[in-house]
Structures are given as C-alpha cells and as structure tokens.
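Subject: design request, 360 residues
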C-alpha cells in the first residue's frame, strides 16, 4: 500500500505534479464523434463551440478495421481545430483489447498537451486505473507534458459497480465516472436490449381495490438505473470527482431522454453523454439550473449570511442544510454563466425580477 504522503507525487520522473482538486469546468454534455469518419471530423469546428466537451470515440461504434484510422483522425482533429473553452476528451479502447496500448502511446505523446481527459471503458477495479495512471505518467514525462491528463472511468460491468468506491479513489488523476448502461446490462444478465432509459416491464402496480377486485390498477414504470447512479454519485462525491449519466440510445425519444437526464441531474450528476446533435440541447437545458431556482438559491444565501442559524423566507424555514443546497445551485450557475452568455443574462434577469418582487 502506498503511503498517503506519496499519493500526490508523480508516478514517473519528469511527469507533471498530480492535481489535488479536480477542476470543475462545465461539462453538461460529453458529445461523441467518430474521428475516423471524415464527414463527422469536418463538422468538429462548428460543433465544438456549442458543447462543453467533445469526445473522440475510439472504442464502441468503431469497427475493428477502422481503429487505426480513428486514432489518426483524432490526432489530426486535435492538432488542427481551435477548441477554445471546449474540452477535448477521448474514449480509448478497453484495456483487454489489442488497441488500448497504442491508443495511449499515440495520443499522450502526440496530442497530450491538447487532451483534457482519457475515458477508460469497462473499468473493473482500482488496478485498471493504477495501470493507466503509471503508463500515462511515463508518457507525459517522455513527451514533456506539463499539465496532467485526467482519467474518467466508465461503470459498465458488475465488478466495476461492486468496486466503485475503490475506483473513485484510485488516483489523483480521477476526474469522474459515467454509467455505461448497455454493457452493464449485459454484464448483469439484465433482460433488456435498450441503451439506457427505462423499461415498461420494470414497474410497480397499484394494489387491487378490495371492493372492486377486477377494476383496472394503475401501473408506474420504474427506473432500472436508480440504484447504480445513486451509488456512483455517492462514490464520486466522497472522493471529490464528478458523476455523469451515460448514453440514451433512442435518439428519436427526446422526451424519454430528457426525463432520464433530469433524473440523473436531480440525483447529483453534472452531465450526460450526447450521441446526436438533438441531445446537445436537451443536456444543456437539463443540466443548467432553471433561472428561478438560481434566483431562489441566491436569495437564501443572501438572507442566511454566514450560513448558520435559521430564517423564514416566504413561509419556509431555511437553515444550514438548505444553505448548503443553495450553494450547490448558485456555484453551478456561476460556472455555467461564465461560459454561456445566454444563461448569464437569464440568471441576471431572474435575480432582478426576484428583487423587484421583494421590494413590492
């Protein structure tokens, strides 16, 4: 076991100092693209300003005979496109594949200075993160990279979920985690072929009416992923990293996508994957606090002063616990407003309206 005092020392001579706090940058949507597809790669300059994170996907959805082309395409995109404030991530191939080593060797040494986060699929234990951590440190040292590249784990096996706490705390590089519902469903032998979202067969039914036993009984569909998301959120919060919902596969079902994203947002996720441009707007809306909620949070914070004691606002008691809840909303709004002028204007307008209402 490594000593805690060694935890924040570089794992290779010449590698950059590990981060002590994960930088919180807006990441409401992680938008996937295939860098080996020339048409998709050509759209990157136009898409980049509209998303918080752009991810070059090298793993699933990239056929085996196109892996090298996708890797080379990502290098070209990273070198040629000005991403501005948008983060550039990649999802490498799984560590048990024949491509993962070359993914890391190529990307870290050739575009490591432009790469913010490496997403690692099918992480099953801290050992997977330790392997990536050490190798990336060696490659950073070789390439002379001065800013550490962070690592993001996907929970998509039952072993990964069972070991989620140790994975979250495996390295200072850990940026966050995402739920991978499709592979996780297969790993658990779940009887669903959907990629994320609910299932009409997973439900609870209203008890029968004793007086009318044959009367119709209301049915309520349940969330297949509630337990896993909640456990992932707790592990991430305990270790100071960020949780994300993964993919929602039914592109046409924008209502179901919005519902699933909102459930994840309310549980504590900071963003979700977007697989199609239509999901970018959904994620932006869902993972940005509503202006009236931001105005209320700021009002409570102003009334609470140092955050101790209790006050009554509009007939509702506010204490140190609600003060902390409001801080979460207000701090998120501040971070998003710094990047999004439209949101900043909406938040400012809501605050002005709230103040005017109080004065009346």
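Subject: RE: design request

Done. Sequence follows.
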């Amino acid at each position: 076991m490594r000593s805690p005092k060694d935890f924040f020392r570089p794992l290779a001579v010449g590698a950059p100092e590990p981060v002590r706090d994960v930088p919180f940058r807006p990441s409401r949507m992680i938008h996937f693209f295939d860098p080996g597809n020339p048409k998709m790669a050509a759209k990157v300059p136009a898409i980049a300003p509209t998303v918080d994170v752009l991810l070059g996907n090298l793993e699933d959805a990239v056929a085996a005979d196109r892996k090298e082309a996708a890797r080379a395409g990502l290098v070209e995109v990273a070198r040629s496109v000005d991403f501005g404030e948008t983060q550039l991530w990649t999802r490498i191939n799984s560590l048990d594949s024949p491509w993962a080593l070359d993914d890391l060797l190529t990307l870290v040494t050739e575009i490591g200075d432009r790469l913010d986060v490496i997403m690692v699929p099918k992480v099953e234990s801290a050992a997977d993160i330790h392997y990536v951590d050490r190798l990336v440190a060696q490659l950073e040292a070789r390439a002379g990279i001065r800013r550490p590249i962070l690592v993001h784990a996907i929970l998509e096996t039952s072993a990964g979920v069972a070991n989620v706490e140790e994975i979250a705390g495996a390295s200072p590089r850990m940026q966050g985690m995402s739920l991978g519902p499709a592979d996780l469903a297969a790993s658990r032998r779940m009887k669903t072929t959907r990629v994320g979202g609910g299932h009409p067969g997973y439900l609870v039914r209203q008890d029968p009416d004793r007086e009318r036993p044959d009367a119709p009984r209301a049915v309520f569909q349940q969330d297949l992923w509630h337990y896993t998301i909640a456990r992932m959120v707790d592990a991430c919060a305990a270790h100071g990293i960020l949780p994300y919902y993964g993919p929602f596969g039914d592109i046409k079902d924008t209502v179901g996508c919005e519902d699933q994203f909102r459930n994840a947002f309310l549980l504590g996720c900071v963003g979700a994957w977007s697989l199609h441009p239509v999901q970018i707007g959904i994620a932006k809306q869902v993972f940005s606090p509503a202006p009236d909620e931001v105005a209320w949070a700021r009002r409570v914070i102003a009334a609470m002063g140092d955050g101790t004691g209790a006050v009554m606002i509009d007939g509702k008691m506010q204490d140190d616990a609600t003060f902390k809840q409001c801080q979460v909303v207000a701090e998120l709004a501040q971070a998003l407003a710094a990047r999004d002028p439209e949101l900043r204007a909406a938040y400012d307008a809501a605050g002005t309206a709230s103040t005017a209402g109080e004065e009346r």
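The mean pLDDT is 92.
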